[in-house]
Write a structure and sequence with these properties.
alpha+beta; 20% strand; 5-stranded mixed sheet; 28 helices; OB fold (Dihydrolipoamide Acetyltransferase, E2P); D-amino Acid Aminotransferase, Chain A, domain 1; Helix Hairpins; 28 strands; 5-stranded antiparallel sheet
């Protein structure tokens, strides 16, 4: 079935004959059963939509009377839950992936209204809300109380999951409404909860879920309701089965007001729920939605657009498959299926070896995806992925494409198992497994070409030395041609200008710019410098702590500290301490550090001068909070961030809120809420002006 699906997806719908229609009907039935009943789809939602639209086109083209696209396909499979019929079918929405279809939808609505009424407003009001990727559930209330919960199923009937619904925290068990009410919800699992659930599943050897929707669905249908209770499921209301009765009872004419009324009853609604005027305002809102989506802890696969005027719903009505007054705008496909052609073992800057899949090229969200990370070899084992497998690929915005699950039906005979390499693919050193961790790595930190290249790319990046002219391609090219060997050579690049000018693509101006960018990068803070060295485990915060050990060029080169010294510092774990000592004790690294310290203007640690009569030992290794705005000398207002910068070389750890774990609050007498909270929690308050008089 998978191969047949691929064949249909590759062909133009105009090329199909009448005989193909029957095949496609069977195919849609098969995929519907996998999706709705078995929770094991083998194609993506986007691919299913394409097949469905193709079938609809063929049924119309050949005038087929019994149209499968207007019917319910999935049958009820065996379940321990009681089967229940919906009072009104939970039909789907028509889907679109482009703005032109939205404009066409608006035009159709306008025409349908014109056919029903002689006059109407030219600009229609719409409501735009989240399209959650979850499980549809119907909740039934009688005499104030929740009495029944039914899953969506095959749109007509499905399972009674009342006992499990009673365990969900944000489902009201009673409401301030005595009459009969059928509320329709989408049950979802937060992405953060999904990740935590799978982490536990991996450790315990349980089923690992491929996506939050499947996890939510199975969690809702657990035989043990106590398990459902622990899953942190969330429900969001979006519709009523007895919509007409409710709006008449409450005298409501707008869909927006219906949902807002339900919110007053205690039902949780979509956090993105906007009333908009006209289709172009809708399209504009969608265009500006991308930053919002990145911040959401739920899987959102689109937005739902509904005409706000309920009278219009009655005027334009429904098809057997979907309402005419609503449409789902789906985001450019983020999940599709493709094939793994081969696997590379990629060596990172810390020596960690990562399996990367080379894919049959596929376009996801307007980007051609050819590679996807498999993260580590434990993930490979959990996914049970082989070379040649058909897999689901996800690319969420700017995130690196990721393989999320395998279609085992499509596995070829004698498929190649993916295993960690025995030898580094870059330097051929023997690969080591990092104790009981999942990490496999190359221990050759000095001479491994791949590690060397990755470290240089990292060092010249925007967060560290920020040398614009040095990207991945430039670093790799210069290393290959022996123009540079290490970070020292980058800061001596002016000596290689004639050699670079001979290369294709490099003009005099571009070389001048490159040299100029390098010159600008010579001034660097010691903390930034340490981070740019790419010591395993040492990032910005750790580097700031380590920076206080370096007060001169000599201290950088000689590094008179041992592991025991470092573990006494905040945020320095024994493993990180070992990595730091190993780095600074390496002779090759010492030579590089010596040369760099001569080439660069490093701003080494300068301890603030403190009044001789002031014992500061009580502040060492303590957590200090500073209020947002402070009055300093001469009543000049300074920001907290500015003050932190002035004091960041002192051995105190700065935190941004007051709690019982805070040791000191640096404040003035009108500090406000933080001062009050400090007093409540017994936190020592230090007077700002007195403090500043002692710190020079």
């Amino acid at each position: 079935m998978l191969q047949k699906s691929k064949e249909f997806l590759k062909k133009d719908k105009n090329s199909f004959s009448l005989s193909n229609t029957k095949e496609l009907q069977e195919l849609i039935q098969y995929h519907s059963d996998l999706y709705y009943n078995k929770e094991e789809p083998i194609i993506s939602d986007y691919e299913y939509d394409i097949l469905f639209e193709t079938l609809q086109f063929l049924e119309n083209k050949f005038n087929i009377e019994s149209k499968q696209t207007d019917q319910v396909w999935a049958e009820i499979w065996e379940s321990t839950f009681q089967k229940v019929k919906h009072s009104r079918p939970m039909i789907s929405l028509w889907n679109t992936y482009n703005e032109q279809d939205l404009s066409d939808f608006d035009e159709r609505v306008q025409k349908n209204i014109a056919a029903a009424w002689e006059t109407h407003e030219d600009t229609l009001e719409y409501v735009l809300e989240f399209k959650f990727d979850g499980l549809g559930v119907e909740l039934i209330y009688k005499d104030w109380n929740l009495v029944q919960a039914i899953t969506r199923g095959n749109w007509v009937e499905w399972e009674d999951v009342t006992i499990n619904a009673m365990q969900i925290a944000n489902i009201p068990k009673t409401i301030p409404y005595k009459k009969y009410l059928e509320v329709r919800w989408e049950v979802v699992l937060p992405i953060s909860s999904f990740n935590s659930l799978n982490e536990i599943a991996k450790k315990e050897g349980w089923k690992v879920f491929s996506n939050p929707r499947n996890a939510a669905s199975w969690s809702m249908r657990m035989k043990d309701a106590s398990v459902t209770k622990k899953r942190n499921l969330k429900f969001f209301v979006y519709d009523l089965a007895n919509f007409e009765e409710f709006r008449l009872e409450e005298n409501i004419s707008e869909y927006y007001d219906v949902i807002k009324d339900l919110e007053k009853f205690g039902f949780e609604i979509s956090s993105y729920f906007n009333k908009l005027s006209g289709i172009w305002e809708v399209i504009s809102a969608i265009d500006n939605f991308w930053d919002v989506k990145k911040q959401i802890d739920f899987e959102i696969d689109g937005l739902v657009l509904k005409a706000n005027d309920i009278w219009l719903w009655q005027a334009i009505g429904f098809t057997e498959h979907h309402p005419r007054y609503a449409i789902a705008y789906k985001f450019p496909a983020e999940i599709l299926t493709t094939q793994i052609n081969s696997v590379e073992h990629q060596v990172g800057r810390t020596g960690t070896i990562t399996p990367v899949a080379n894919l049959e090229p596929i376009i996801i969200g307007w980007v051609t995806v050819k590679r996807a990370t498999l993260h580590n070899y434990e993930e490979v084992e959990n996914l049970w992925v082989h070379v040649g497998d058909t897999v689901f690929i996800k690319r969420a915005w700017e995130v690196i494409p990721k393989i999320i699950s395998v279609v085992k039906e499509g596995r070829i005979e004698n498929a190649e198992i993916i295993t960690p390499p025995k030898y580094c693919p870059s330097c051929e050193n023997e690969v080591i497994k990092d104790g009981d961790k999942v990490r496999f790595y190359c221990p050759n930190t000095v001479d491994c070409p791949a590690q060397h290249s990755e470290k240089l790319v990292f060092a010249v990046g925007k967060q560290w030395f920020n040398i614009d002219g040095f990207g991945v391609k430039q670093v790799e090219l210069f290393l290959e041609l022996w123009i540079i060997h290490n970070l020292v050579d980058i800061f001596k690049i002016s000596e290689k200008s004639e050699e670079i000018l001979e290369l294709e693509g490099f003009k005099e101006k571009s070389v001048e710019n490159l040299i100029s960018w390098v010159e600008k990068a010579r001034k660097v803070e010691i903390a930034t410098f340490i981070t740019a060295l790419a010591i395993p485990g040492v990032w910005k915060k750790t580097a700031k702590t380590l920076a206080k050990l370096f007060y001169s060029r000599e201290s950088l080169i000689e590094f008179p500290y041992i592991i025991e010294d470092l573990v006494e510092l905040d945020d320095i774990w024994p493993e990180i301490a070992q990595n730091v000592v190993d780095y600074f004790s390496n002779d090759a690294h010492k030579r590089i550090l010596s040369d760099l310290s001569e080439l660069l203007e490093i701003n080494f640690y300068k301890k603030l001068e403190i009044s001789a009569d002031w014992d500061v030992s009580e502040y060492f290794w303590k957590k200090m909070c500073i209020t947002w705005s402070l009055i300093w000398e001469d009543w000049v207002k300074v920001s907290r961030d500015d003050l932190v910068k002035k004091l960041e070389w002192v051995w105190w750890e700065f935190v941004w809120s007051v709690s019982k774990k805070t040791d000191f609050l640096l404040a003035w007498e009108k500090a406000g809420s933080k001062l009050k909270k400090a007093e409540e929690n017994g936190v020592t308050v230090i007077n700002l002006q007195e403090f500043l008089n002692k710190v020079q």
